[in-house]
Amino acid sequence: MLPAPAHIRIIAHVSLALVLACAPARAAESTLALKGGEKVAFLGDSITAQGWSQPGGYVRLVAAGLKANGVEITSLPAGVSGNSSKDMLARYSRDILEKKPDWVTISCGVNDVWHGDRGVALEDYKRNMTSLVDQAQAVGIQVMLLTATPIMEEPENAFNAKLADYNAFLRMLAAEKHCLIADPNAAALAAIAAAPKPRRTLTVDGVHPNPHGAELIAVSVLEAIGFDNSQVSKARAAWSHIPQVWDVTVTYRGSSGAKTQSLTQALSRTDYERMEKSLTERSRPISVPEFLQDAFRKDVDGYIQPRGSYENIDAILSADAKPEVIKEVKASLSSQIADLIRKAPSAPLDPATD
């Protein structure tokens, strides 16, 4: 056989190089359970609702992490605050089945346990969760179950002793029904055990995720889809630019009853970690949300007599005074945040969250 002309050999080599260059990306995507272009519904409670409403919530992070690895999905958020398995089952047809997603992730269990007598007993929970899986699979929707994260970040409390049985059932159900299973509960317990005490490691209030908690849940989901360490690293790099927006809320007792005042504060993940580093090295360590709320309250209290010019909280939060006071409080809070960030070491805090 005569050798191919040089220009043909060059084209062949270039073509082979292109094939080899493209092969890793295709191979990586082919190992993932979820494919680009698919619709993914995220069913859950307030953790899932905030996972979508917050720019740094776990639902947003899952989508951003997939996109960073070349897989774009259409997200269908379906988290409702306060929901238990009973509530999710009641709205399942409208919020999930009728929208015909390719996938549904189901995060459920915290409220079933945490709400006590208003919650859902284990046997009823088993029936509800089994029905959610069966109904989805009957119409060709693939299912991922998420274990429920620890309650109050206290592994030994009565809530978590009870929750362990609910999560054990989810793991068994996933195996029986051939569902994917993400296990943020196990990852959270490991992170809590490794973290210094006392401080909130993964949540703002014992239940709802802070940026570390949101990332932990997102990583658990991505790993269940099939992400390896390098893909998770790409996701984390994309997440570093996503801000977390906090609703800083303080409730005051006025003459006419409780008055709630809130403002929002956006923090990048880097700023959050540098603030956290400063705050956890204090003689009395506190979390970032605790700091924001304490600072907000102290600043507002400073306007009340005898230090300030207002007689009481009712006067401060009146229609006339409120806009100017809140503007000044917001400026003060921003200044305190900048000061904490400036004083913090440049190296970010790195809790064991994955």
Write up this protein.
The protein is globular. It is of the alpha/beta class. Helix 2 packs across helix 3 (58-68), helix 3 packs across helix 11 (229-239) and helix 7 packs parallel to helix 8. Helices cover 52% and strands 14% of the residues. Helix 8 links the parallel strand 4 and strand 5. It folds into two domains: 33-241, SGNH hydrolase (Rossmann fold, 3-Layer(aba) Sandwich); 246-343, no CATH class.
Topology, pairings included?
Elements lengths: L5 H25 L8 E6 L1 H8 L4 H11 L5 E6 L5 H6 L1 H4 L7 E5 L2 H5 L7 H17 L3 E5 L11 H20 L2 E3 L1 H11 L16 H15 L3 H11 L3 E12 L2 E12 H12 L7 H14 L11 H4 L5 H22 L11
Parallel strand pairs: 1-2, 1-3, 3-4, 4-5
Antiparallel strand pairs: 6-7
Helix pairs in contact: 2-3, 3-10, 3-11, 7-8, 12-15, 13-15
Throw out a few tags for this protein.
354 residues; alpha/beta; Rossmann fold; 2 domains; two-stranded antiparallel ribbon; globular; disordered C terminus
Concise summary:
This protein is of the alpha/beta class and 354 residues long. 52% of the residues lie in helices and 14% in strands.
What is the CATH T-level topology of the largest domain? Rossmann fold
What structural class is derived from the secondary structure elements?
Answer: alpha/beta
Shape category: globular
- Strand line-up of the largest beta sheet: 2-1-3-4-5
The second-level CATH architecture of the largest domain is: 3-Layer(aba) Sandwich
Number of domains: 2
Order of helices and strands: HEHHEHHEHHEHEHHHEEHHHH
Helix content: 40-55%
> What is the alpha-carbon Rg in Å?
24 Å
Number of strands: 7
| CATH evolutionary superfamily of the largest domain | SGNH hydrolase
- Please state the average pLDDT score: 85
Helical stretch tally: 15
C-alpha termini separation:
57 Å
Class of the largest domain, according to the CATH hierarchy?
Answer: Alpha Beta
